[in-house]
């Protein structure tokens, strides 16, 4: 009798990451539940914008899936709290990270927009992580409102002060992501403002990023690589431009999955959710493959009713 394949709901990957090698994702909030509605978000518009923290996902089920996944003979460079929304909205974050660290000695990263680090319970929740990657995409309140479109109870000054205070106490590594947009924040005056705040946050590394995948809004434009390199000179500290994940990876696995996606798209055009559901893959996994297929010209994208659809050429 053929053994039934285990379906994972909260644990996904490992997927090749531009920053973390092979990253085993742990998704702890429902799809697009976030305190921001960033114009550049690769997952689309936020459909549940909130700062209210809850136990969105049963803690026991996360551990059950994680234990099974860790028994597999697979490469894992990092375990990463990330996925469909803002992980610091998960109210049992402290317990979750504590138990993960008991379960494995693999390093644990938290990918966060940093909007809630001014809250004591959130700082307590992530204190045992090895690496925290927050973001700072603006240098003042007006730009913060335009780019990140935060919840009404989030003020730019409060968010920045939270980042500064957290960085002063956190004993792990902090890599601060700065997402630049062409014609908006990728100009000298804006970068200088952002850099002045970063000098107070004092992260171990500054990572510059820009649009690589279809954004939530069509007016969120990518910064050309040569301009991104120019902008890097206006930041002080350890600065790097996040490169595409093209030199690392399990090519056999990667090619097999891309082949499955192409076969699916040959039958009919699909949205990200269609591919995710049809192939039982997490949306973040699908994004990795779709990005490469678009870059290689294997598939094309078009918009219909405010949704991105993909099909073969």
Question: Can you describe this structure?
Answer:
The chain has two domains: 11-241, Alpha-Beta Barrel (TIM Barrel); 251-312, Orthogonal Bundle (Arc Repressor Mutant, subunit A), CATH 1.10.10. The chain is globular. Helix 6 (188-201) links the parallel strand 8 and strand 9 (205-209). It is built from ten helices and 13 strands. The termini are far apart. Helix content is 36%, strand content 18%. The chain has 313 residues and is α/β, with parallel strands linked by helices. It has an eight-stranded mixed β-sheet with strand order 1-2-5-6-7-8-9-10, with helices on both faces. The longest helix has 17 residues, at 251-267.
Rg over CA atoms: 19 Å
CATH class division of the largest domain: Alpha Beta
Largest sheet: 8 strands, mixed
The helix content is 25-40%
Nearest-integer average pLDDT: 88
- In DSSP terms, counting alpha (H) and pi (I) runs of 4 or more, how many helices? 10
Order of helices and strands: EEEEHEHEHEHHEHEHEHEHHEE
Class from helix and strand fractions: alpha/beta
Distance between the termini: 40 Å
The total count of strands amounts to 13
| Percent strand | 15-25%
CATH homology superfamily of the largest domain = Aldolase class I
Give the tally of structural domains.
Answer: 2
User: From the 3D coordinates, which CATH architecture of the largest domain would you assign?
Assistant: Alpha-Beta Barrel
Low-confidence stretches: 245-253
The largest sheet has its strands arranged as 1-2-5-6-7-8-9-10
Q: What is the name of the CATH topology of the largest domain?
A: TIM Barrel
Shape: globular
């Amino acid at each position: 009798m053929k053994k039934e394949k285990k379906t994972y709901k909260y644990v996904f990957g490992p997927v090749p990451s531009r920053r973390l090698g092979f990253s085993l994702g742990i998704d702890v909030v429902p799809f697009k539940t976030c305190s921001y509605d960033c114009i550049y978000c690769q997952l689309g518009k936020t459909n549940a914008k909130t700062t209210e923290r809850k136990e969105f996902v049963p803690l026991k089920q996360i551990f059950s899936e994680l234990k099974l996944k860790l028994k597999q003979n697979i490469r894992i460079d990092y375990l990463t709290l990330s996925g469909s929304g803002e992980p610091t909205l998960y109210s049992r974050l402290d317990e979750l990270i504590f138990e993960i660290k008991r379960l494995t000695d693999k390093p644990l990263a938290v990918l966060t927009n940093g909007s809630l680090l001014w809250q004591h319970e959130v700082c307590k929740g992530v204190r045992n992580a090895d690496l925290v990657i927050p973001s700072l995409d603006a240098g003042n309140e007006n730009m913060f409102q335009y780019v990140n479109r935060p919840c009404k109870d989030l003020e730019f000054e409060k968010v920045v002060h939270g980042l500064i205070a957290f960085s002063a106490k956190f004993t792990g590594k902090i890599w601060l992501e700065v997402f630049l947009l062409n014609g908006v924040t990728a100009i000298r005056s804006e970068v200088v403002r952002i850099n002045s705040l970063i000098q107070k946050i004092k992260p171990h590394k500054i990572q510059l990023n820009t649009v690589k995948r279809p954004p939530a809004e069509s007016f969120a434009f990518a910064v050309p690589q040569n301009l991104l390199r120019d902008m890097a000179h206006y930041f002080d500290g350890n600065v790097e431009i996040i490169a595409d994940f093209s030199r690392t990876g399990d090519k056999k696995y990667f090619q097999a999955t891309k082949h499955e996606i192409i076969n699916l798209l040959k039958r009919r055009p699909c949205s990200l959710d269609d591919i995710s559901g049809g192939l039982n893959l997490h949306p973040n996994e699908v994004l990795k493959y779709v990005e490469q297929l678009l870059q290689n010209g294997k598939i094309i994208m078009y918009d219909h009713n405010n949704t991105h659809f993909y099909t073969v050429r």
